[in-house]
Design a protein that fits this description.
By secondary structure, this protein is mainly β. Helix content is 12%, strand content 40%.
């Protein structure tokens, strides 16, 4: 089966005036126009191509790499707005269409928008939608607490920044857990900090899952996140103060801080510990 909006590895069947005809294992054919034909090729060679409908609504294969493919999310620029909708630059000759009904906010020429790409079953055209939340589902989670996840920054809220988790779920990074500049469309690594009732995901930024950190280090990380990334403690702090704040001995504290420092999760300053 030749999949529209995705990369397909197909076999070169024959050479014609318009280009090469390619086929899948079920003998479905598609044209690779001359402009995309490689300099060196042989009949029966395998070639990876992207397949979509061209300006004449014909199935076509190309060797261009789009900025987004079917089922994915990406930040795209709006090239034009017409009476039908918006047309987005996705790195292909034919622009990606986003109808008005799929626009969370009315798009404007020159603006950048986070969109999801999907296949319209009626027209078999690839279509964009900036209503990204409707393509996410938290009913059945595929992630667990403390698991490292891939994030795409979605849109801000009053209490933080919404993020797309593993291209499947909606998560939230609270404002007091954001210690770097992030923008819509950014792709980051994060950790599932907490799963709240209703399968709501609290996310923290970082590339190291808590399961890879010793228990005392994990406790310090949580305490840092709950205090805007800062703890007024150091190896010179009184043991009783460390015990009061963290419920651990000074020896355990120093060992845990050393572990976090080696993993470049914190920095140690004269005034205390800061989360990176």
């Amino acid at each position: 089966m030749i999949n529209i909006g995705e990369y397909n590895t197909l076999t070169i069947l024959r050479e014609t005036d318009p280009g090469l005809f390619l086929a899948d294992e079920d003998d479905n054919e598609v044209l690779l126009p001359n402009r995309y034909v490689p300099e060196d090729f042989k009949i029966w060679d395998k070639i990876e191509v992207f397949v979509y409908l061209d300006n004449d609504e014909r199935l076509v294969a190309v060797t261009d790499k789009p900025y987004i493919k079917r089922g994915d999310f990406a930040l795209l620029r709006c090239n034009a707005v017409t009476q039908m909708g918006a047309f987005l630059d996705w790195g292909m000759v034919k622009e990606l269409f986003c109808p008005f009904k799929e626009q969370a906010f009315k798009m404007k020429k020159g603006g950048w928008y986070l969109v999801h790409c999907y296949l319209d079953e009626k027209t078999e055209r690839l279509v964009a939608s900036s209503k990204t939340n409707r393509f996410l589902d938290n009913k059945e989670l595929t992630v667990e607490q403390f698991e490292e996840v891939d994030l795409i920054v979605s849109h801000p809220s009053e209490i933080g920044m919404n993020v797309i988790v593993n291209k499947k779920h909606l998560g939230l990074i609270y404002n007091d857990n954001i210690f770097q500049d992030i923008s819509i469309g950014d792709r980051l690594k994060g950790v599932v900090k907490k799963i709240r009732p209703g399968n709501k995901l609290d996310i923290s930024l970082g590339q190291v899952g808590y399961r890879n950190i010793e228990p005392n280090a994990e406790l310090i990380m949580k305490e840092l996140e709950d205090n805007s990334g800062y703890l007024n403690l150091s190896d010179k702090s009184d043991p009783e103060e460390i015990k009061r704040v963290l419920q651990m001995s000074k020896k355990s504290f120093k060992k845990a801080v050393g572990s976090l420092y080696k993993q470049k999760l914190i920095k140690i300053e004269p005034d205390g510990i800061h989360l990176l």
